[in-house]
Task: inverse folding
């Protein structure tokens, strides 16, 4: 038995049914609604109600269609996860490159600092020598 309910027009509706509960007088129109998200060429064809083999094939096809739908959903989830992981990897690589750049810059600045300290020490020594020379000149004049 199919029950109906009012659903807002903006909400998606999925129509499905169970073959075990379907009455013998089910109309072929109901069969086409079993898998609305499935491509038309993959839709199970309505069975011939007079043939048990046709009903079995239809049930099998429905089961395969459900499995196909689940696999498609899983693939979509895995692709989304793949995108997230790629984005995360790109972020980590960028951070790694930033860290390498910062380490290189730090090494360069450390070397520059060492060179400047050495130059400062030499300038201080030279200044001290000049003061001593100046004082000697002042004292001899």
Result:
């Amino acid at each position: 038995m199919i029950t109906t309910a009012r659903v807002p027009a903006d909400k998606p509706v999925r129509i499905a049914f169970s073959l075990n509960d379907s009455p013998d007088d089910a109309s072929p129109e109901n069969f086409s609604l079993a898998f609305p998200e499935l491509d038309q060429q993959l839709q199970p064809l309505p069975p011939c109600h007079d043939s048990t083999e046709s009903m079995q094939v239809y049930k099998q096809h429905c089961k395969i269609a459900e499995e196909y739908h689940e696999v498609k959903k899983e693939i979509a989830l895995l692709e989304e996860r793949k995108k997230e992981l790629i984005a995360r990897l790109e972020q980590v690589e960028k951070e790694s490159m930033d860290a390498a750049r910062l380490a290189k810059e730090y090494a360069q600045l450390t070397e520059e600092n060492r060179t400047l300290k050495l130059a400062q020490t030499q300038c201080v020594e030279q200044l001290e020598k000049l003061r001593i020379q100046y004082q000697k000149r002042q004292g001899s004049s």
In short: The chain has two helices and no strands. Confidence is low (pLDDT under 50) at residues 1-5, 15-19, 21-30. The first helix runs from residue 28 to 31.
